[in-house]
Amino acid sequence: MSSTPLPGIGVRYDLTTREQRPLSVVAHRDGSRTLSAYRKDDPDACALSVRLTSGEAEALIDALMPAHHSPSLLSTTELGLVAERVELSAASHWNGRVLGETRMRTETGVSIVAVLRRAEAIPSPGPDFRLAGGDTLIVIGTREGVEAAAAILGRE
């Protein structure tokens, strides 16, 4: 990766992918970003250029680097397990109900290892733990199990 100062504009970052596809990002002084991809057969011909707000750029970073940046993805191991944060909405069917009613481990095979509520972390909540809208559940399991758990918890 190389960088080039652009006086009055910001900084341009250039990268050539393993497939020899030139990419660039211009970091504008106002916080926005312009992402550009160039044609492989003609690196001077821009095939795509997208201007992103700072919020959109942050969302793209989360998508590109989930293991490091994403607020929802905590880790992935070579064992095929993932740990994710799943937020319980106020409109959730489970708001006000106890954790055991979800039958989470039986239905999905995932474990709920903690619940984050406001500034508090509740480790290893038991089946009698009462869920509340706004809770963030830390779930660990296979990718499929975690997706199934998120679907169950998202039920309204």
TrEMBL record:
GO terms, biological process: potassium ion transport
Highest rank taxon of the organism: Bacteria
Residues spanning the membrane: none
Example of a GO MF term: monoatomic cation transmembrane transporter activity
Pfam families, per database record: KhtT_N, TrkA_C
Signal peptide positions on this chain: none
RCK C-terminal domain: residues covered: 71-155
PANTHER family per UniProt: K(+)_H(+) ANTIPORTER SUBUNIT KHTT
Name of this protein: Potassium transporter TrkA
Organism: Streptomyces viridochromogenes
